[in-house]
Amino acid sequence: MGSNSHVGRRDLIKRAVALGLISVPTVGALSACASGGDDDNDGGAKGDKTDKNPLGVDKNAGLEVLMFDGGFGTKYVDDDATAYQKNFGKVKTSSTEKIQSKVQGRMAAGDPPDLINNSGDEAMDVPALITQQQLADLSPMLDAPSIDDPDKTVRETLRDGTVEMGQYGDEKVYRMNIAYSVFGLWYSQKLLDDNGWVYPKTWDDMLAICADAKKQNIAGFAYTGVYPQYLGFSMLPMIGKVGGREVLDAIDNLEPNAWKHDAVKGVMEAHYELYDKGYVLKNSPGKTHTDVQTDWTERRNCIFIPNGSWVENESKDTTEPDFEMTVSPSPNLDSSDAMPFETIWAQAGEPFIVPAKGKNSLGAMEFLRNMLSKKSAAGFTEMVSSLACVEGSEEGLQLGTGLTSAVGLLDGAGENFLNPRFPDWYPTPYREKIVFVWGDMMKGGIKPAEAIDKIQGIADETAQDDSITKYKH
Amino acid sequence: MTDEGRAATKVAVPGEAAGKPVPEKPRKAGFRNSPRYRTYLKYRFITGFLIVPLGLYAVFVISPFVQTFYYSLTDWTGVSSDFNMVGFENYSRLLDDSTFWAAVRNNLILALAVPFVTLTLGLFFAFMVTVGGRHRKGEAISGVRGAKLYKIVYFFPQALSIAVIAALWGYIFKPDVGLLDPVLPASLSPNGGWLADSKFALWAVMIVMCWAMVGFFVVLFSAAIGQIPKEIYESALLDGASRAATFFRITLPLIRDTVQTGWVYMGIMALGAESFAVVNIITQGPGGPDDSTMVLGVYLWNTGFGQLQAGRGAAMGVALFILTMILAVAALSVGRRRDRVEY
After folding, report:
1. Averaged pLDDT of chain B
2. A415 φ, ψ to 5°?
3. Which of residues 98-137 of B touch A (CB under 8 A)?
4. What is the ipTM of this complex?
5. Range A354-375 average pLDDT
6. Which CATH number fits domain B92-333: 3.90.78.10, 3.40.50.2300, 1.10.3720.10, 1.10.1740.10?
7. Can you spell out the DSSP letters for A393-416?
8. Which of A30, A36, A128 sits opposite B308 (nearest CB)?
């Protein structure tokens, strides 16, 4: 207002309004949570170690558990909470669909929940948390005696690759994945039987079935364009099968030109052929997993979808009893493939993390130890129709056709398990970039050669980005 | 205000502090008798009212701003309290980041196109419901038949949260089951729907944003048009002015200030909150396909909170802040009129 001593009421109000308006988006976008808080809290409460309390949990300390409220719900921990409370302190369970929004501020302030079910679309970036030393190593829990058999450690009761899924480049274990998923191509056995088709063991057979189905207006293949990471459930294990484990390891290790391997090329060209010949369900590029699963189970207008073993539970509302949901490994490309048809990608999922700066980290680990008992794991399988990571926990349970076939694959695979780590070692480049290149290719936006160049570029960028922690097999 | 405060303010007044004599009233020297005292009283009066809001503003708006600038120079992750100063590294990374530039480009398109379409539609509808109708007996101006109903109906989207609106439109754009799929010709209906195609996705975002905001401007402009004296319209009518002439020669010039404010408001919504919500809810990725709908708000969120790169996110926040300021200042200063018509 300078030399003019009159403050016009209109001017004042107008300027105030203008200033206020400008601040509207910036407040939302910029509001930064203040950093600070105490960082000295080291795992919190401790008690005396006994046979019944091998981790030395403070019996009086309370425990706070934050659950992700997703496909599995949160009820499956209720029994674990009751069991824990019998011997130890009070358990306070809460749940959210947005883990990160609930946790990030509390972590920055040094006051996180003791146990977090870090799952869902808004899961916290685990590699970043490890780099920041925010997570506790769960090895003490894994090396403690298991609940069912004191002569066996918890580690020894788990399925193949479960512990590995919590490791990031060294022996420490930062995530405990309690579910166990089998990935592959899912289909209705009834649909195959009705048409006299046999599940294809090679890609030529796959194309033959698709061609036959096209005549009846059934799409051979459908994918989830909105969340194209589902394509990985078919692409990644197939790459491993065609070229061997080393190809996947090279990809995980961010080696130069790892994606330019002939196995990658062959698999991506094979998938592109599905698009090129018109075998992909129309509008797949705009569909979510639930859209596709509804098309698949209810309209029955597509045969094969790449998916994981949670799909049976997730789509149970639209699945008729006669559907006979089944999973098989992706077909081999041809007879020169490095690994047999039975090779599968099976992986522990549904991660729990224990923040390093929680008030009762030992209590959280004791809680996990209890969740990994056979009884609790079987309860999980019964309640949410997913396998648990505890070996043999499904025995004696009444499983659906899908889960039964998944168990069959586990038994049939022998030593031929694959476990590509790129998706969880480098979640951002994978989930936000690479899978969308696949999606683009599957709708004909780009050719396989170009897609490979793009993906290699993303991998190279990741390798060069020093703000991303790197891991190696 | 306390005595100390008063003393401090007193010293701060230029001229007085230098001990300059006051010429008008030489007999009674001293600040109390200087003409500046009135100015001082006026400011003190205003400050008295504003001190609480200004304090809140400083704590909740200014201080986060300053903090954000500070954090943008660090490698803070947002999950722990230790971080290092990295200078302008976050900014130099942004300059090489193609997604960032895609977000800037899309934000600029949104900030120009969405206000233009929304305000044009808002003006048109407001004119029609207040002035554009047939002339009835004894009324110089009137809206089209059913104007009152239209006003209410146009305002409906305002009563819904933007999240609900975006989710509704998400279903409309959905292939196979959406409303749009059956009515569009094949050339306008790509495989997977609009949101799956990089040529159409940003259009979809714009349609949702315009739809959500038009009603607000219909109400705002209707009120502004209602303030224009009827006599002006009557004389235009006597001169035989057409509807179009009435609109461009009378209505638009007289509500120009409101339109300008509306433009700034809508531009800011398109840069910030509104685009963030719509893109986040309806698009693939979000921000896809192929960054075709990426906006700064979403990229900031993904980087700062999803990837735990709060420092880099803060740098994007600063970039968004600068972009918003430039557009707001430009919109407010372009075509500022000195000869205001008072009525």
Report:
1. 85
2. -95, -5
3. none
4. 0.78
5. 94
6. 1.10.3720.10
7. TTTT----HHHHHHHHHHHHHTT-
8. A128
